[in-house]
């Protein structure tokens, strides 16, 4: 099986089809970059927000899963800044991937008298009872990025098109890896957490794209770990992905290169990179590596060629969509919705707003991430 240099895998064709932002309003609605809204907000804005919050008198509880991932820090800070600018008091809590801690945080928010809850769950199955408490207290719940399963207490859902994320990753592989049954390429999958509905949807989107090439022999998964239950990663954990990748490389690729790492998240990609380096991979046989979130570190890796691509998810836009939902709910209005059929949580179909994921690689990261102000050239050069 031939070895490939990453630059030969990159293509600009995907820019025209994927660079669409969040609906048709991405450019119009994008807020300042996360660091600017949390660390460098003008004093005048802060002074204006404080009296508004006092006059508003309404409180929003925001429950986030962890600060171990850059994207969740940005999500939380963006939402807090935007809600406070509208005059709401905000109780922002991170549970550090501790399920019971998140339950306790939400219980405390309910007890403190919040008027609305925004929840990005760690394990939504563990939140059913506390969500019922909120429903009984008349507190509306908005699911953020991760669908809240098995409950009718959730009013709306703000997220990216999660199946679309998997589709974009799969399409990138199909469009850029030069797949040919006459010259099969090896692939291994590193998917997300089994307790996160997003991970299942991403996997479905990915498999729709690559299954025909697995069927015709252009792609070969030597470990045989193609079913979600065999390639998922609890809590999207980097160390777990690294250990699994090490085991796969030792067990199946001692005499042959791994050509494609289909990773569902940048953190998993970092773990796989560490395993590959430990196994002696170099630029001469470095595989195509995908990811999700276009974290700052991942973007630096894309520039250097260590990671091939990622999925950009502008947390400023997602936060804004969620904030408009909160505002509408608290003011008795109808929020903007663009999907009323996809997200069945086993009890109800949750009205949703889906933002569009954008694939980024070395060819278009400046256009997608720098020109929009998501990152600065200085940040990427550090």
Task: Note down, in words, how this protein is organized.
With 382 residues, the protein is an alpha/beta fold. 45% of the residues lie in helices and 14% in strands. The strands form 3 sheets. It has a 6-stranded parallel β-sheet with strand order 2-1-3-4-5-11, with helices on both faces. It has a 4-stranded parallel β-sheet with strand order 7-6-8-9, with helices on both faces. Strand 3, helix 7 (128-136) and strand 4 form a beta-alpha-beta unit. Helix 5 (70-85) crosses helix 14. It is globular, with a radius of gyration of 21 Å. Mean pLDDT is 88; it is low at 1-55.
Index terms:
12 strands, six-stranded parallel beta sheet, 382 residues, globular
Short summary of the structure?
The protein is 45% helix and 14% strand.
What does the secondary structure layout of this molecule look like, with pairings?
Layout: H1 13-18, H2 26-29, H3 34-39, H4 43-56, E1 59-64, H5 70-85, E2 89-94, H6 99-111, E3 116-119, H7 128-136, E4 141-144, E5 154-160, H8 162-176, E6 185-190, H9 197-215, E7 219-220, H10 228-231, H11 238-252, E8 260-263, H12 266-278, E9 288-289, H13 296-304, E10 309-312, H14 315-330, E11 352-355, E12 358-361, H15 365-370, H16 377-381
Parallel strand pairs: 1-2, 1-3, 3-4, 4-5, 5-11, 6-7, 6-8, 8-9
Antiparallel strand pairs: 10-12
Helix pairs in contact: 5-14, 8-9, 11-12
Largest sheet: 6 strands, parallel
Measured distance between first and last alpha carbons: 37 Å
The share of residues in helices is 40-55%
Helix-strand makeup class: alpha/beta
Counted by DSSP, the helix tally is: 16
Strand content: 5-15%
Strand order of the largest sheet: 2-1-3-4-5-11
- What shape does the CA trace take? globular
> How many strands appear in the DSSP assignment?
12
Order of helices and strands: HHHHEHEHEHEEHEHEHHEHEHEHEEHH
Using only C-alpha atoms, the radius of gyration works out to 21 Å
| Rounded mean pLDDT score | 88
Low-confidence stretches: 1-55
